[in-house]
Amino acid sequence: MHSRYRKPLVRRFTVRRMRLLTERIEQVTAEHLDAMAQAGPPADLVTAFAKPIPSVMICELLGVPYADRGSFQRQVDVFHSGEVGDEELIAAYTGVQTYLAGLVAAKRANPTDDILSELTEGDLTDEELKGVALTLLAAGFDTTANTLALGTFALLRNPEQLAALRADPDLADGAVEELLRYLSVAKTSLRVALVDAEVGGQTIEAGATVVLSVNTANRDPERFTDPNALDVRRSGGGHLAFGHGIHQCLGQQLARVEMRVALPALFARFPTLRLAVPPEEVPLRPETADLYGVRCLPVTWDA
């Protein structure tokens, strides 16, 4: 079943196809940086920058009308916040499902130039298309948004690393990989053992559910030297921020391009960008949240 859903998506999220989006990502990023500059300091970087950029891009890829994007973003926030009750969670989920049913029907009737329209040409049912669309929307919004916000926070808290990145733009690709390793916003993954296996002296029986700690793996001292340090010059990659194997994140190349464009543009546009509050006052998401992140990131700069 996993292969049935994944196969039609693989060719739509290739490295080449995502890199072709670079110019559009640059445009969207510039628009939001212009809005930040026009509004003036201070700003919440989460709402002004980190959330809107991946939100616009994933909605455009799936063909979600512009007017509906704000509503989608709020509902996805509810899914991942870890701060709402069951009633509000169910209401948000039901609202998204209802909307997606209408969107799938609209794409079948009048296909447009987007991924969801392309998927309606295959053999996926309407229910399956709704599930695929919801997964892509939720992942496309929140994971990259949290990484952009936390990445900015991490660089502002490590000024020597930010200075190195400013001094050598060629470090940008490696810095993105290091931030993905260092932050690991998707904290855990669940897998089921297909056969009996022994890991670290522990027997895992076939059929057992295994909780994989991504952030622990990404700070494994046997794999990374000084793993708790942020080092934009670190080489080698090898992190598990996007998972591994057949379940590796389909949208990883889109996330990489968005970060590669957005973070350097932010620091180039606002060279005096800094936290507007002490680091310990930046509010983090609760431990019950699906993703590691900040609720908001107050920043300021010299206007």
From TrEMBL:
Organism of provenance: Streptomonospora nanhaiensis
InterPro entries per UniProt: Cyt_P450, Cyt_P450_B, Cyt_P450_CS, Cyt_P450_sf
Molecular function as annotated in GO: heme binding; iron ion binding; monooxygenase activity; oxidoreductase activity, acting on paired donors, with incorporation or reduction of molecular oxygen
Sequence similarity: Belongs to the cytochrome P450 family.
Protein name per the record: Cytochrome P450
Pfam family, one: p450
Keywords assigned by UniProt, alphabetized: Heme, Iron, Metal-binding, Monooxygenase, Oxidoreductase
